[in-house]
Amino acid sequence: MKRFERLQQIRRLDPERDFLEIYRLTTTFEFPWDYTRALELALYRTYAVPSIGRLLAQTAELTGRTQKRYDDTALLLDSILEHGFTSETGRTAIRRINQMHRSYDISNDDMRYVLCTFVVVPKRWINAYGWRRLSHHEMAAAAAYYRTLGQHFGIREIPGSYEEFEQCLDDYEEAHFGWDQGAREVSDATLDLMASWYPNALAPLLRRSTLALLDEPLLRAFRYEQPGVIARSVVRGAVRLRGRAVRLMPPRSTPHYARQNREVKGYPDGYEVAELGSFPVPGVRGCPFPRRSAQS
Question: What angle do CA 40, 8, 17 make, to 5 degrees?
């Protein structure tokens, strides 16, 4: 297969009817590494909304069991992508995610914003650092994929197109990004997790490199020191150089799913989708951290 042959295949498909096939081709053949990084950044970005970051800090899932939370999130979303919305595995993954979300007092607006990050952040990452830009077909298919996923999660007023997802994300961040001590703790734990995947001696460099990839609104929300111009130029240039190198490589012949990523470390002997994620606290009925108390 030639380098752009799969893109030609994608363009022959209908992004509204064949969105699952297009999204699989894009994420598992064309950009598996980029989508992994972009979805990590998408979830990380949500911490800068205080109502989200504060709740994640209160649950301690991302500060006390950071690797497990990372693994479970990746594997649950991966199960839906690999097996489809109507498969038994896909339905089990959706059910598990819904059970977790319903244990907490999460607003529809926050849920919709998180969904928007899954659509918009990968497009922006790939257009900046990927071996090619995303096509209109791929953007439309991603919007349709996450619109369908959002419907399975019971999210209301979901944007209808990529452009609407993007506008929703930008408006929400402008209105809601801000400082929260708990969110900063979740952010620090996530940065520590990413650094732990590599030799200890590289941890400070990796943390600085990650911060150099963040935009100004994120850095301000978490009150991180601004990376220098040279650091940003070097780090972002290196990631772009990787994309140019990938462009010269033969295209993938087999799909690569998130469950195959080296960063997923918690299940060396396998896993059951129905057992992934967190479960309600024994003896606690309803949300243990309602928004009204979190904001008081």
Answer: 70
Provide the terminal-to-terminal Cα distance of the chain, rounded to the nearest Å. Answer: 59
- pLDDT band for 295, please (50, 70, 90 cuts): very low
The dihedrals phi and psi of 63, each to the nearest 5 degrees, come to -115, -35
Residues 6+ apart with CB under 8 A from 269: none
Amino acid symbol at 216:
E
Half-sphere CA count of 16, side-chain side, radius 13 A? 2
Question: So where are the chain's domains?
Answer: 12-247
Euclidean distance between CA atoms 102 and 53, whole angstroms: 17
> Which among 44, 247, 28 is positioned nearest to 133, based on CA atoms?
247
Neighbours of 214 (CB within 10 A): 21
Residue 286 or 174, more confident: 174
CA 53, chain centre distance (Å): 15
Q: What is the pLDDT of residues 137-169, one digit of tens each?
A: 999 999 999 999 999 999 999 999 999 999 999
Regarding pTM above 0.70, the answer is: yes
- Which SS3 state, helix, strand or coil, does residue 87 take? coil
Four-residue CA torsion sign, 180, 186, 192, 195? negative
Under 8 Å between Cβ of 15 and 141: yes
